[in-house]
Amino acid sequence: MKILIVGNGGREHALAWKLKQSPQASRIFCAPGNAGTAEIGENVTIAANDFGALVRFAKENRVDLTVVGPDDPLAAGIVDLFTGEGLRSFGPTKAAARLESSKIFAKELMREQRIPTAQAGMFERSDDALRFCDRMRFPIVIKADGLALGKGVIIAADPTAARSTIDEMMNQDRFGEAGRRIVIEEFLLGTECSLHVLVDGANYRLLQTACDHKRVFDGDAGPNTGGMGAFSPANNWSAALQDQFHKAIMRPLLRGLQERKITFRGLLYPGLMICVDGARVLEFNCRFGDPETQAIVPRMKSDLLPLLEATVDGKINSLEAGTIEWDQRPAVTVVLASGGYPGKYETAKIISGLDAAAKLGDVHIFHAGTKRANGEIVTAGGRVLAVTALGSTMKTARAHAYEAISRVHFENCHYRHDIALSAVAGNIGNAL
Ligand code: AMP
Ligand code: GLY
């Protein structure tokens, strides 16, 4: 099979790496890919939002399956277009991807199906939003309705901060169209957990759990990022939570979609907050998480390709129970970022030590913002690399990941030193 992967991040490199190992995979194309995917398959210089060129490429090269990584092309209907052209593709349609691309849509569906989530109000007018804030206990969470590169969620500590955030989003176009409508919700206390679920419309299979680290600095300080590291499995998950997840979240969600005549086929990644009274949904994502994928996929022993195909074909139930085999060892993924990230960041810094780091056993180096220039691999994005290591315990996986990182260098590289620290048994919270 010829497979086209759309996107250029660490997630796409991890998916390409895994799919390449399938005995059914003959060629892997990445559009546009990065220096890491170029070593696995063939990079194609087509941007993820250039749908016309992607369709032409898929047809001319007789691509059998297209796997869409990022949220933006899904929200813009890339899967509808591909399917209309007779091309098989993995990911939800535009209508189904609204679970991620409209927080108001997701909230309405959750409310209707009584799916546990934060209490919220939805607003189209700033004066209504401001009045609602007067009745809230602070802090509160203000969310732009649409996609905003992961930056559309603001936690407002007091009424002054809430007023200025509402004004910036709704009246001053801080997030453009995405912020014209907003959700304001109660602040939930708890720990976060990322679920990854292959959904074929009617049925689904859970993948392994993971935890992301969204803030840029150690100790969860500083602004939010796309994700600075992850570990899998999550340390806050349990059989009881999984039972609640099936009954109170997944089944009602599928019912709500069915009632709207929407078929979701693809990867659903609910972001959950584990609170004292159980799991609540913070958001639904309609694609693999980044960097969660880089921690989950190296633990998957099964072939990923038949799982993606069963999802696209609506045949998840034909997979035998227990078909998805996992390495029981935990994985830790640490993201190396460019100087300045998540603000304006530097690029074109030469990266050294990649081969030395890759020589370590059970270490995988996934590229994100990298490219090849004059025979060197150089930085080309905010998040540059995701270094994953497996170990017999979370502690050894962590130690391996940081040892690999110590061999990699680029100017002004920064990363968190406390990824997975909270999951190391008996640890009292000292950073590395
Ligand atoms: P979202 O994009 O909705 O997942 O929000 C991004 C991040 O904001 C989440 O991963 C949480 O860290 C935080 N967040 C979102 N909603 C809430 C909430 N209701 N209470 C506390 N934190 C939240
Ligand atoms: N891990 C955050 C995201 O993929 O949205």
Can you tell me about this structure?
The chain has helices at residues 10-20, 35-40, 51-60, 71-75, 78-84, 98-101, 103-112, 126-134, 159-170, 239-259, 292-296, 304-312, 354-358, 394-406, and strands at 2-7, 27-32, 42-43, 65-68, 89-90, 120-123, 140-144, 153-156, 182-186, 191-194, 197-200, 204-206, 211-212, 215-217, 221-224, 229-232, 265-275, 278-285, 331-337, 363-367, 370-373, 376-379, 383-390. With 432 residues, the protein is of the alpha+beta class. It has three domains: 2-93, Rossmann fold (3-Layer(aba) Sandwich), CATH 3.40.50.20; 119-186, Dna Ligase, domain 1, CATH 3.30.1490.20; 191-425, 2-Layer Sandwich (D-amino Acid Aminotransferase, Chain A, domain 1), CATH 3.30.470. The strands form six sheets. Strands 3-2-1-4-5 form a five-stranded parallel beta sheet, sandwiched between helices. It is globular, with a radius of gyration of 21 Å. Residues 428-432 have low confidence and may be disordered. Glycine is lined by residues 150, 212, 227, 285, 289-290, 292.
